[in-house]
Structures are given as structure tokens and as C-alpha cells.
Amino acid sequence: MARRPLPRILSSGTVSLTRGRDLARTAADSATDVLHPLLTIGRGLRILASAGRRKWSETPKDKRGPALFLGAACVLVVALVPYGPLLALITLMAAAAWQGRDRTPVKTGPGDAETERLASLYEALVPYFSTPEDPSPLFAHGGEWDKAFSGYEFDEAGRVTRLHIRYPAYFTDGEAASRARIEALLHAKSGRGREYLFEWDEEGNQLDLSVLAALPTGIAAQPFVTSPGETVLGFTDAGSVRRTLPVLEGDQPRDVPPVIWRTGPRATEPHLLAVGQPGSGTSTLLRSIALQALRHGGDVLIVEGGGSGEYSCLTGRGGVIAVECGPVGALATLEWAAKETERRLIAAHRAREAGRPAPEDTRRPLWILLDRPSVLAHLAAAEGGPDPLAQLQVPLRHGRAAHVTVAVTEQFEHLELLHDAVWQHTRARVVLGPATIQQVADVLGLPPHTTPPAQVPPGRGYARLGSGPVHRLQVPATPDPYDDDAQPAFRQAVLELLPERLAPGGTGSRGQAQPPAQGSAVDTPELASETP
User: Fold this and answer.
1) Helix, strand and coil in the chain, % to nearest 5
2) Residues whose CB is less than 8 angstroms from the CB of residue 348 and which lie 6 or more positions away in sequence, other chains included
3) pLDDT at res. 494
4) What is the mean pLDDT of residues 151-176?
5) CATH number belonging to the domain at 230-497, selected among 3.40.50.300, 3.40.50.20, 1.20.58.1370, 3.40.50.10610
6) In 29-187, where do the E strands start and end?
7) Which of 281, 299, 282 is nearest to 290 (CA)?
8) pLDDT tens digits for 346-357?
9) Closest among 392, 363, 395, 343 to 264, alpha carbons compared
10) Which domain of life is it from (predicted)?
């Protein structure tokens, strides 16, 4: 016997069923909003009917006859009075609406547990916000906390999520040490394991404490909507920047606020330094920068000191000049980068003297990315060779005019091995991974306005561009696509952004002069073609 086909609604898949449920739910919500007055009146009529039935059942049987006669007389009077039935109907509807109104009690103040927590915070702040000479102290043991705390919010667990504090004018809020003591105390008393934002209003003697939501960690590397010269370092809080970018988090589109690093001849922060612990995400940041530079037509030169092969996916790709891992190759490559910077400067200068625009090859961005260069410096010193980092002085000092950008990543333990030129010319700074407030302040120049959490995901940290504010930062997930431990979706996203591999013997940087092979001498580039 032939099998009867399934109905269309059962054979069209779960997508149609899900869409139908969503439409039905939306229609039900809309109908509820439109019919809300009728539902309220119906609820009130039901309450009035229940009250009348209960009153009738409580009436003794010998009194029910007179009660019916009295009710019939009232109905007769209402019927004979002009507009009586209409007024009676209006009165009944009004009584039903009043009885059917939403009577959910509104919470007007903190509960017992919340009051106890606020009182504990108040008592803990008394030694810091009071002096014996104050005749009318705002903070005093056994005092009223509601005079100092004018605003507060709590989460489901009863912990503080927002707190507005008034403090005396004589508190030394202009001293960083005094503010740090208050922030550490509030962090400990309000609950650890969360990030708190402290906003000091020194003019109004007020402090706002708020709990920050976690930054998104599911945004993978992707073609960001940026112009040439703009690099997305990561994403931050909505109130920190005035711009948002459309991105995909998984399959869901959303707008997130980015931290944009601008490079080029007019950039005020032409070079970058990123510091972190092992596994904090500094290599992820460098891979993200490399992919964005290649997408905008730049040439990328990578020097890897760790020797872990995390940048092998870029070897032989279009736009990638070289990926060096040894001290000899790094020295030769950085010498070539220094000579290339000088060549660009000379060519641009001669073009300006002749009244011509700068040659195209001098305006193409050149990115020099160094991951843990202190390891190569140590190996070179052990072998008795010159320090490769000494060759960075020319690109760092003159790279902005020559369209050369340098990005260096290093670990906290080896920061003293970096040259003074790196510290002086890298005005864009990033700190990733777990770090103390003092470590963050030593690198960025300012302490963060938030409390660093004890447990952070890879790529999570802080960023500061020049003399600007310190931003929370979450680097987009850009793992090594050959790392089997990384998430497959993130690995695939990186593979889709990689340029095509060049054929054997092809030029690696769109026709630009290549760096010398390892161990070969570095010659001054020929400039005869740029002679006016």
C-alpha cells in the first residue's frame, strides 16, 4: 500500500514551525496590549460577581426575600430615572475597572538584607570619610546611611550593582592613593569577581560605583568596516567611545563600540606596544593587526622571537614580506627595514623638491610586527652578534613620515630589555591578561578606572592611545588557524581572511624590493629611478 505523504506543515522543516510560533506569539502580545482595558474590566466583573455570590451565601435565608425586594426596587428606580441605565452601566464599569486593576506591590526601598549590606558599606567608609574635628559629620559610626547613599541598585543575589555616594569636601579626592584606598575597599565589600567602574566628581564631592558587564568574547576576526589607516584593536564599553561597528557575533549581527588605532603620516600614535603574560592574547592581537593591514593593501614584515610558529599561516602569502624566527634572519630583515625607511624618506624628499607627488612605493604602508623581540636580543648576545632591536630606531623615529608602522609585543618579565626608543615612540599602549593596577599604570601611564578582575579571558585587557583615557579592551578572536585546540569557527574565520599563497618564485609584497636572505649583506637601495 502506498504511503500517504505528510502534511505540508510537517514536512517543511522546523524553520517554518519556529517562524509560525514567533508570529503567533507576536500576535498574542499585540492583542493583549490592545485588549488590556477589556481584560481589566472583565477581571473586575469577575471579582464583583464573586463578592456578590459570597455575600448572598452569607445572607440568612429569612432575610433573602426582603433583600430581593430591595434590589428589585433599586433596579426599578434606576430604570425610571432619566439616563439611569446609562449611569448605572458607567458606574458598574468604573467599579469593575477599579477592582480589576493591577495590584502588584511596588518596591519602594531596599529589603532587610539590602539595608544590612548598605549599612555595612557605610560603616566601612566611616574611617576614611570622617575626622574628629567635623562638628556635623556625614559619616559617623551608628549614623544614617541614607544621607550618604542617595542612589543604589541590587542584582538578584542582593549584591550592589550601582551606588551613588556623597562624601565630605575635605576628603583628599585629588590624590590617587586616597582614591585607590576607597576603590579597593568598595571592591572588597561589594563583592569580588566583578569589574567595577568608579567615576569621581571632585567638584560635586560625589562618587558613582557601577558594575560593568562583561565584554563580548565571541567576536571573531572579520572584515571590519574601517578606512585605510584605521586598525581595530578590540572592543570596549558603549560609553567610552562615540563610534560603533557592525560585526557578527556567531551568526548574530550587532553594533559594538571599537577601540580604533589610527596610523599614517598624520597619526599622533604611529607605533604600538602591547604587554601581557603568556597566553594573554598578545599574539592574537598581532595576528589581528596583520590581517587588517593586509586587507588594506599594506606590506607586512613579521619577526617572531618565541619561535612557536604562530605566524606560519602568513608565510608565503601575498603582501607578507617575510616571517623570521631566528636572530640572523631577524637582524638582516630589520636592517633591510631600516634601509627601506631611509630610502622612502629620500625618495619622498627628492619628489617634493622636484614638485612631483611621492612615488607609489613610498606611500604603500609597511608594517613591522615584532613578537617577543627580547628573546632574539638574548640569543644574539649569547652568540656574540649585534642586537637586532638596535635596527628599530630608524623605523620608530622616522616611520610616520615614511608610512612605516611598528608594533611590538612583549611580556612583563622582559620589559627591561626593550630599548629606550621603543618606550619613547610607542605611544599606543595595550596591556592584556591578568595584571595589577601598578603594572597597568607603569605601561599605560595611568591606572585604569575599573578594578582588574582576577580571571580574564584571552585578549582581555586595557588600551590607551597617546594621552587619551584608558579603555577596557577585548581583542577579536584571531587564533592560529593551524592550532587544533582553538575553536573551529574562529580558525575558519582566520583562514577566510588570509591572502592567497604566492607561486614559488613570486614577489611577496606586490613588487616591492625583498629583504635579503639570512646572513647576506644589506646594501643601500638604488635611488637612481627617483632622481629628478
Assistant:
1) 40, 20, 40
2) 358, 359, 362, 401, 402
3) 95
4) 89
5) 3.40.50.300
6) 149-154, 160-166
7) 299
8) 999 999 999 999
9) 363
10) Bacteria
